[in-house]
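Need tokens for this chain, all 174 residues.
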Amino acid sequence: MRTCLKALLLAGLACLLTAALAKKSFNFMDALSVSTVHYNRGSEEKNAFKPPEKNPLRGMDIVIPGDGSPTEMKIKFTLKETVCPKTEDYKKAECVYKENGVSAHLFCSTIPKKTPSEANSVEVTCEHVGPEEPEEELKSQNPWWPFRRLMKKNTCIPKSTPLLYCKFTFLKNI
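Here are the structure tokens for all 174 residues:
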């Protein structure tokens, strides 16, 4: 009985520890939230911007350096203008998207420093990028659009290097 009680106590402690550690990890949605706050603070627009509710991230990449440096998360996303001023919280339900509002297409790099839950402990750099073609336009232009991910071209560094590095890019126009 005592052994069973100890095993249950250890299992409960392990579950609590796992849950506590999971809450402290910095994920892509945290990177999106911190990048949105960074953009709203630095933009010259009067209104706040927020990401769309459906599919906010257009691209994600993670860089884990082997030298012990902090992990870098790179995200590509779109922000849309809301009716709320920058001084208000853009996450409120009242902050709906502005009709005919401006969209910002961004590529941001986030590096968590100490405590990822605090916005000031994350280094954020952002740059504007051009908008991507919507998938509906690709469908109408190209009858082979479902197979576009299968059709790749690659660029490789010459074989004189000890390792062969290849960069794959998707063909959009066939």
